[in-house]
Design goal:
Blueprint: E1 2-4, E2 7-9, E3 11-16, E4 20-25, E5 31-35, E6 40-42, H1 49-59, H2 63-71, E7 75-84, E8 97-104, E9 120-125, E10 131-137, E11 143-154, E12 157-167, E13 170-176
Antiparallel strand pairs: 1-2, 1-13, 3-4, 4-5, 5-6, 7-8, 8-9, 9-10, 10-11, 11-12, 12-13
Length: 191
């Protein structure tokens, strides 16, 4: 379920690694936006800004995308370990620590998705090893943070059941995953 400034609506997200994604939104928008690894496709002309945010989140900022970038030889450097997370949500809770890395994608501008970042900070939970957030500056110099929360096991893999995107500290959308299914590859034509 996707919640943003337009309200709440159902979305279906199909991801086929390494970089193909299809987002089908229901409700008043009733639109499909896809990315085939090199080009964004829509039935309604140029990609809408909110659809581009969804694509960026799943095609370039997701745990799978980050790990694929590293496997492809993208440069990274360790910024440090035992960084303590602080803020209003941490009051009265045990301290949480993360390991921080900086990812330096060499071809972000060629990704085909508007707004792809040049450099990202990636945080992993020190205890579980799961990705907590990805943060970077968008072309308008706003800080974009995608948070991955409430991880659950499905088919022997771990998935975040809540994905939140913040821009300039303001939440622009929240997705609560209700069903994750792992299956055979889908035909490339849907992307």
């Amino acid at each position: 379920m996707l919640t943003d400034e337009r309200g709440q609506r159902a979305v279906e997200i199909v991801i086929q690694n390494p970089a193909s994604i299809r987002i089908s939104e229901s409700g008043s928008l009733n639109r499909v936006t896809s990315f085939n690894g090199t080009r964004v496709n829509t039935a309604a002309g140029p990609v809408a800004e909110d659809a581009a945010r969804l694509l960026l989140t799943f095609a370039t900022d997701s745990p799978e995308a980050i790990f694929q970038q590293l496997a492809a030889g993208e440069a990274y450097r360790t910024l440090g370990t035992r960084h303590r997370l602080v803020g209003p949500a941490s009051v009265g809770r045990p301290p949480e620590f993360v390991e921080l890395y900086q990812l330096l994608p060499r071809d972000a501008a060629k990704s085909g998705i508007p707004g792809a970042a040049r450099s990202k900070t990636v945080a992993f939970d020190e205890v579980s090893g799961l990705m907590r957030f990805v943060s970077y500056h968008n072309p308008f110099e706003a800080v974009v943070t995608t948070q991955y929360e409430d991880w659950k096991a499905e088919g022997g893999e771990m998935y975040p059941s809540v994905v939140r995107r913040l821009e300039g500290g303001r939440e622009v959308f929240r997705i609560v995953l209700q069903l994750i299914s792992i299956g055979a590859p889908v035909p490339n034509g849907i992307f």
